[in-house]
Amino acid sequence: MPPAARGLGAALARPKTVAVLCVVAITALGWSWLALAVAGMAGPAAPLDFWPPAFTALCQPTFGLAVPEGSWGLSGFAVVGLMWGAMVLAMMLPSAGPMIFTYAEIADTAARKQEPIVSPVVLAAGYATIWLGFSVLTTFAQFGFTRAALLDAHMTSASASFSGAIFIAAGAYQFSSLKHACLRRCRSPFSFFFANWQTRARGVFRLGVRQGLYCLGCCWAMMAVMFAVGVMNVIWMAALGIVMTVEKMITGRRFSQAIGAALIAGGVIFTSAHWPLWPI
User: Fold this and answer.
1) Start-end of H helices in the chain
2) What's the CA gap between 58 and 233, in Å, rounded?
3) Cβ neighbour number for residue 229 with a 10 Å cutoff
């Protein structure tokens, strides 16, 4: 093989390189799909007279979906399911980056010793399976909320009380023992992989599933906030994605509890004052 081809093959055989490419590619796929939606290629945004069109599209892309009575049909479910799938890939893969890179570091060391390893892509696939399953559940939840008139035709909250309740519930979950038990698992992937190392694809896929479950237990309530601020509100999506990533990278409970207190305070304010959470 030419030297350039040999160099490329050697690079792609390194688990760390594959891990970086995997996280970047899948995250970029999710954000690219969302960018197409915001640009109007997946449907027009609902008008907000007092906001610039670009800001409106960022906060309220509707994907061409009008569901005032909750009657989507098969195509409607498919569009919303794809929408949630893109959202979870865009928001959760960056927060899983440290976990995937940790696996790749261990695998890279094993590869140098000529020990059998499994590609990080298999681990990422197991992790993504959990969150794609979550996107199916949220699709049905959105259908139910729309049918109950809690979400309007533009996929935004139609009730200040509904939005406030979600904020308060998400904030309260930040203080729960389950939240912090899952968060501890997310913060210490090295000890997890060291204690449960696998050399077969099936075993590594299961490790990804377990890490996905820990991540789900840590972050599901924060993801539910999207129902309160407007499903597919890209500004809130980016902000929550950053918060969840930072939360997994630092130690202690103070940051998580500060976020919880802020969510609860916001929920109380919006519920009592009936201020719209939209379009910020």
Assistant:
1) 3-12, 15-38, 53-59, 73-112, 120-147, 160-173, 177-187, 189-195, 201-229, 234-249, 254-273
2) 6
3) 24
- Helix 73-112 to helix 120-147 angle (10° resolution) is 160
**68 pLDDT more than 50:** no
Peptide bond into 279 cis (omega under 30): yes
How many CB atoms lie under 10 A from the CB of residue 22? 23
CA distance to 155, 235, 275, per residue, from 158 (Å): 9, 19, 12
Asked if residue 81 lies in contact with residue 161, where contact means CB atoms within 8 angstroms, the answer is: no
CB 245 within 8 A of CB 131: no
For residue 238, pLDDT over 60 is answered with yes
Residue 226 corresponds to which amino acid? M
pLDDT of residue 217: 95
Q: What's the CA gap between 171 and 261, in Å, rounded?
A: 6
CA separation for the pair 139, 144 (Å, rounded): 9
Q: Give me the amino acid identity at 201.
A: A
> Locate tokens 């109007």: which residue?
40
Contacts of 112 (CB under 8 A, 6+ apart): none
Angle made by CA atoms 153, 234, 49, in degrees to the nearest 5? 55
Question: Which tens digits make up the pLDDT trace of 92-136?
Answer: 888 888 888 899 888 888 888 888 889 888 999 999 999 999 999
Quick one: tokens of 46? 């609902």
Kindly tell me if the per-residue pLDDT of 269 is higher than 80: yes
